[in-house]
Amino acid sequence: MKTIGVLTSGGDAPGMNAAIRAVVRYGIFNNLRVMGIKKGYNGLVNGNIEEMQLSSVADIIHRGGTILRTARSEEFKTEEGMKKALNVIKVFGIDGIIVIGGDGSFKGAHKLSEHGISTIGIPGTIDNDLGYTDYTIGFYTAVNTVLDAISKIRDTSTSHGRANIIEVMGRHCGDIALYAGLAGGAESIIVPEEELNVDDICKKLIQGRNRGKLHSIIILSENIVNAYELGEEIQEKTGITTRVTIPGHIQRGGSPVAFDRIIASNMGARAVQLLLEGKTSRAIGIKGNGLIDKGIEEAIAEESDFDNKMFELTKILSI
Ligand code: ADP
Ligand code: F6P
Predict the structure, then answer these.
(1) In principle, which of 48, 104, 154, 227 could form an S-S bond with 43, CB 3.0–4.6 Å?
(2) Cα 11 to ligand 2 centre (Å)
(3) Ligand 2, closest atom to CA 10?
(4) CATH number at residue 293
């Protein structure tokens, strides 16, 4: 192993830069050449690649986004795209590739490994929707961003005595809603892992009002129901004025929190280590307090491990 490449793919996540920094610095420390592949798999297909130096990753550990840029590449999924990518890998003399992204990006990494290229996946997505790992890079930063929104909305919710719906990201995973909802003391949390019951939410709102609660925060995971229509239904059924806030892509940006920087740094170094040990098609994760690595295929086949116990706790604590 002499030359390795690193790319970020799919949706960006705060902490990706900290992972790139760790790959580059740990790689160079181990006498490897490290190539930065730009815009995800597009860079591999089009040869948009630059050698990274120690200084290429200076002053980025605290920055959101990804200095390598990211993209979704349809071409890479085609046979022709894969052929082009394999040719570029040969021309640049790349022996192994570290892919930072979500499950789609991991599928691409596995395909490359089937063509004889060593690949390692680092989980980078705010959604925390990969079941094989407790946490993905960017998740805790997104949770903190939502928490900040909850705190601000709670102020005005209390002043006006309104119900406020906050729609959060997560694709088809309720983790951002669950963690931010627990930390923010939300009255109701709507997640894809449990069937929506609007009447229960309304009942809870009215019970809260009857015992003098002024604010009502409802956290809604995206892709379940139209937030504005839900707001109208709740207002009609309870008589409580309801407002909707959708933080949207604000959740994808910002300076990564310490936890994301720490796991990104550790995972970046471990990825290089695995390539040096001759491993391929491995996904790095975190279980308990330690790093793990698993076959990529096995890792992406694992169901998301939604924490039902914690979800039940949020219901008890918000009565
Ligand atoms: P994420 O990695 O965040 O889940 P996507 O699902 O959009 O994001 O995947 C990112 C990129 O990974 C895709 O644009 C594509 O280039 C590559 N990819 C996804 N699925 C496959 C696949 N089955 N085979 C090859 N490449 C894939
Ligand atoms: O996967 C990260 C994520 O932000 C999801 O939470 C969201 O559903 C999706 O990406 C949004 O994608 P885009 O940035 O393409 O709008």
Answers:
(1) 48
(2) 6
(3) 1
(4) 3.40.50.450
